[in-house]
Amino acid sequence: MPRLLLLVALGLITTTAFLTPLIGSPRPVWACSIGIGERSIDVLAARSDAVALVEVIAAGDSINRAPPRGTPATPLSAAAQGHLFDLTGYGGRLRVVELISGSMPQEVDVDAGVRSGLEEGLRGIEATGNVPPCRLDSFRTRYEPGGMYAALLIERDSGWQTQIAYRVSGEDALVTNDYSPGAVSPPLTLGDELHETFLKGVDAKAEYPEGVETGPLGQVWMVTADRVPLSSLLDAMRAAHKASIQPPATGSAGLAH
Predict the structure, then answer these.
(1) d(CA 108, CA 92)
(2) Rounded distance between C-alpha atoms, residue 8 and residue 139, angstroms
(3) In sequence order, what are the residues at sequence separation of 6 or more whose Cβ sits closer than 8 angstroms to the Cβ of residue 19?
(4) Contact residues for 194 (Cβ-Cβ < 8 A; gap 6+)
(5) Among the listed residues 182, 1, 203, the one whose alpha carbon sits nearest the alpha carbon of residue 90
(6) pLDDT band at residue 22, thresholds of 50, 70 and 90?
(7) Which of 97, 230, 118 lies closest to 167, judged by CA?
């Protein structure tokens, strides 16, 4: 299963977050990697319109509705076959159980644009046999019908989209320790302040090596436990989201500097 692409820069092992087209391919092939802190609660909450505890009313089925692109490439290499995956769970309809911060409809369809992109991407692999460095469903949320999730969501032109979502089990939120596609829950990373305030007692490892200058979040912590208290995670999400929507600081005259 593909792992995180590690980029070595200035002699330090780090990771960088973006999708970039690789030149010289008959079709665009996308390099996928992630930067330290780019998938942190701090950053994703700042980009979100809502923090919510949601229930999955319905989840996407396995059918690829994108039209085939001509005659499929045959035979597909083992590498190409390894980049094909079941679409079940991508996209769905959510019901808000508790709105933690921000605003969103009580019921909403999510990830329609993401789902469409996955379907088109799979058709491209089938037609050309081209293998992207990272599976297309990397960093995407796969929902399970009836499941409960602590989610950060954003409204885009294509509709509501999941930034990140953690599966709820009892009083806890489930966490994994890598970015393997299709995982029940993603890794949980936080900046210094959120970690210190809300999850200090949970096992976690520092992402920046000792002696390396940290970024704007200070040290970034990746939780190594397989679950965290749900209430603590929701409190951290709320705090990060509310911090991101504070009005700008003003001078004594009430004018922004």
Answers:
(1) 8
(2) 21
(3) 30, 31, 32
(4) 41, 42, 236, 239, 240
(5) 182
(6) very low
(7) 230
- Taking the CB of residue 236, how many other CB atoms lie within 10 A of it? 25
Which distant-in-sequence residues (6+ apart) come within 8 Å of 57 by Cβ? 92, 93, 94, 95, 107, 145
Side-chain half-sphere exposure of 131, counting CA atoms within 13 A: 10
Residues 162, 80, 179, CA angle at the centre, nearest 5°? 35
Average pLDDT, the chain: 83
pLDDT of 33 reads 64
Instruction: Give backbone dihedrals phi and psi of 25, rounded to 5 degrees, phi first.
Output: -100, 145
Minimal CA–CA distance to 243: which of 219, 216, 221? 216
Q: What global pTM score does this model have?
A: 0.81
Give the Cα separation of 96 and 107 in Å (integer): 6
What is the rounded distance in angstroms from the CA atom of residue 116 to the CA atom of residue 191? 33
CA distances from 218 to 128, 221, 236, 244, 250 (A): 44, 9, 16, 17, 25
CA distance 136 to 158: 18
Q: Name, in order, each residue with C-beta under 8 angstroms of 231's C-beta and a sequence gap of 6 or more.
A: 171
CA–CA dist 214, 212 (Å, integer): 6
State both tokens at 97.
Answer: 């159980």
User: Which whole number is the average pLDDT over 103-123?
Assistant: 96
The percent of residues above 70 in pLDDT, for the chain, comes to 81
Separation CA 198–CA 206 (nearest Å): 16
CA distance 124 to 90: 18
Kindly state the tokens that stand for 92.
Answer: 């769905």
For residue 16, give both structure tokens: 């960088």
